[in-house]
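User: I'm curious whether this sequence folds into something compact or stays loose and floppy. Could you predict its structure so I can see for myself?
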Amino acid sequence: MIVLSLAFQGAADARPTAREEPPALEEKAVPPLPFPPLNGWLGFAVRPRESRTLPWSPDHPHATVALIEPTGWDEVSEGTAFFATGSGEPLRLVYSELSRIPYGCDDRPREMVAFTGPDEPAEGIYWVSPDPGASALPIAGAGPTWAIGGMVFEVETKGDFAGISRLREGDRVVWKADWEKGVMAGVDRTATDLANPFDHAVPRPVAAWGLPSGDAVIVVQTIGYEGVTWDVLHRSGKGLTSAGKQYVFVCSV
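Assistant: Here's the prediction. I'll summarize afterward.
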C-alpha cells in the first residue's frame, strides 16, 4: 500500500501574490509542454502530511500548488502569473521557485515547481496554465459509472482482479483501457473493490476541465503499488486522444 512521509519545514517565505498583478510568462521562457498540444501542467494542492487525505499530495513549505518532477523551468521568472483550476473556481497564482523537496516514504528529494496565491486550494489535482479561461467540468457519480461533460465513464470488472474502463460519447466508445490488478503475496490479495477510490490498478476519472477553445481535458488516475499514473485525455473537434501520461513514484512496497 502507498505510505507517504514528507518533511514539512514551516511557513512559506514572503512571495509575490496574484494581487500584485504579476507579469505574464515570457514566450522565450515557456517550459516544454508535457501534454502537447495542451498548454498546461498537472499541479497538486500542497498539504502537510498530518492533514492530507491523498497520499501523493506534496508537502512543500513555499507553495500552495506544486508540480512534481517537471522539466525545463529554469528560465521562468519568479512572480510570473499562472492560473490553476481544480474542481471549483480558477485560482490566480504566481510562480515562486524551483527547488528539491523531500517526497515519498523515503523522503527522497524531488524537483518541484512551486506556486503561491492568496487562498488555500482544496486538496486535489489542478490544471495549471499561463492561459486563463479553463473551467471545471463536474464529474457526477461515485463509480462504477460517472457522467463527465456529456460523456460517460464506466468501469466493468472481469472476475476478481481484472476489468476494462471505457469512456463513451453517446453510443460510441472513444477511449478504453484493459486493466489487471497484480496480486502480491504478503502485500495485497484482496479482490477489486470499485467502491474503494484507492484500490489499485483501476483507471477512474478524477478531474475534467473545459478550455476556452471548446476542447476538454479529462484526467484518468490509476493507483499502483508504488506510485500513481495520470492519463491526460484531450477531447477536441477531431476526437479524443491521450495527450500523455504522468507517473509519480511514491513508495516501494
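Summary: The two ends are 7 Å apart (CA to CA). DSSP finds no helices and 16 strands in the chain.
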